[in-house]
């Protein structure tokens, strides 16, 4: 990615350095801002403060000591972390907009139609495709609106789109969007577009029998391709009087071990979370979130 000089950043509607402190700004030999290096410096500093805060919390949980006897840095470190997160978001947004500019292309009808057909519930009409292409063009042409949409796209911004197929496949692990990712995010977050499909990987789809914990009769679990769920195991069939009958997956990394299977009621509220300990085409081991309870299933 080509670096930008401060006046080029400001011409795109951004304050510079804005929330980015001078110590973090890394310069390229030509006098431009090295945005990637700046982002990396900010992220390293944030990691330090988060690590220190986590150690403080762990020490307090272990000892039960009051905060006043543990540290006088907690408030300062929390404030530093918040400011660093704001600065990182600022830099990420500038990088994203620059990358979209460098793509320098208008999304084609075929590309957008295929994306909507794969990641959204049909039918996908020509009118929907045209409306979305126009919407993306309007957003890209308006620097302040583009900055708003790119910021809200960020995956750590309230978990936007987690468990939806477009986020978990098309835009997996992307901190800022390409043009096609932006189109998917706009469709997913705007009323009037088709609903996003849940992310339901093939390896989980089908009928399973619970082997452990043992019961008088083997409980059946079923995950279907459209996001329907059914479990005979009482602890996984209902929560607070509501039947858990929907499922979707949030990826935690490139492999399926560590996936989170979110089980929801008909209103699509997250009811229970199962972490994937291991999975093969014939075997699935799940662990209840924040619990040591494990469930061993075999495919029927």
Tag the structure with descriptive keywords.
single chain, 300 residues, alpha+beta, eight-stranded antiparallel beta sheet, two-stranded antiparallel sheet, 10 helices, 10 strands, 17% strand
Characterization of the model:
The protein has 300 residues and is an alpha+beta fold. Helix content is 43%, strand content 17%. It has ten helices and ten strands. It has helices at 6-11, 35-63, 67-70, 74-103, 109-119, 126-141, 143-153, 165-170, 179-189, 234-237, and strands at residues 206-212, 220-223, 229-231, 238-239, 242-243, 246-250, 260-264, 270-279, 283-288, 294-299. The strands form two sheets. It has an eight-stranded antiparallel sheet with strand order 3-2-1-10-9-8-7-6. It has a two-stranded antiparallel ribbon with strand order 4-5. α2 packs antiparallel against α4 and α4 (74-103) packs across α7 (143-153).
In short:
The protein has helices at residues 6-11, 35-63, 67-70, 74-103, 109-119, 126-141, 143-153, 165-170, 179-189, 234-237; strands spanning 206-212, 220-223, 229-231, 238-239, 242-243, 246-250, 260-264, 270-279, 283-288, 294-299. By secondary structure, it is an alpha+beta fold.
């Amino acid at each position: 990615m080509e670096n930008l000089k401060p006046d080029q950043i400001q011409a795109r509607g951004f304050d510079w350095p804005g929330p980015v402190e001078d110590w973090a700004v890394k310069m390229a030999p030509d006098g431009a801002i090295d945005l990637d290096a700046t982002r990396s410096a900010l992220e390293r500093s944030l990691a330090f403060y988060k690590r220190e805060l986590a150690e403080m919390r762990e020490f307090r949980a272990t000892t039960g000591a009051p905060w006043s006897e543990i540290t006088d840095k907690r408030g300062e470190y929390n404030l530093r972390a918040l400011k660093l997160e704001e600065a990182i978001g600022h830099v990420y947004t500038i990088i994203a907009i620059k990358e979209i500019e460098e793509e320098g292309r208008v999304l084609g009808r075929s590309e957008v139609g295929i994306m909507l057909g794969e990641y959204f519930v049909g039918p996908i009409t020509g009118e929907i495709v045209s409306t979305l292409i126009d919407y993306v063009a309007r957003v890209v042409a308006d620097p302040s609106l583009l900055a708003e949409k790119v910021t809200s796209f960020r995956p750590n911004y309230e978990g936007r789109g987690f468990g939806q197929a477009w986020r978990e496949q098309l835009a997996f692990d992307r901190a800022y969007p390409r043009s096609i990712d932006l189109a998917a995010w706009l469709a997913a977050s705007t009323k009037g577009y088709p609903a996003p499909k849940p992310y339901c990987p093939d390896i989980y789809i089908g009928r399973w029998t619970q082997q452990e914990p043992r019961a008088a009769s083997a409980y059946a679990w079923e995950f279907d391709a459209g996001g329907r769920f059914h479990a005979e195991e009482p602890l996984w069939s209902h929560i607070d009087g509501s039947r858990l009958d929907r499922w979707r997956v949030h990826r935690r990394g490139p492999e399926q071990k560590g996936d989170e299977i979110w089980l929801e009621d008909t209103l699509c509220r997250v009811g229970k979370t199962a972490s994937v300990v291991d999975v093969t085409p014939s075997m699935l081991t799940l662990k209840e979130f924040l619990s040591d309870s494990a469930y061993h299933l075999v495919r029927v």
